Amino acid sequence: MALLVVLFLTVAFVPFAASNSEGDALHAFRRSLSDPDNVLQSWDPTLVSPCTCFHVTCDKDNHVTKIDLGNSNLSGHLVPELGMLEHLQYLEL
């Protein structure tokens, strides 16, 4: 019975872990940036979906398609984790 419960919990929560990989990518990007005006404060790594973050646009399937950070007074560098945003079509810095 215990094995069945563990199996159920593993299967039930796998989609949530996978769906937050885009949020993890945005959080890694945020950590690499200097943000003196705090424009990225809504990029909370505990959110289930990054689609509620300011400056982020998602498609109907909740995949990040656009990040618009133009004129945001940011500095820093791009991180490899941005490659996890497989549906990203537009990135303005």
From TrEMBL:
Keyword line: Leucine-rich repeat, Repeat, Signal
Cited SUPFAM superfamilies: L domain-like
Segments forming domain Leucine-rich repeat-containing N-terminal plant-type: 19-59
Protein name per its UniProtKB record: Leucine-rich repeat-containing N-terminal plant-type domain-containing protein
InterPro entries: LRR_dom_sf, LRR_N_plant-typ
Signal sequence residues: 1-19
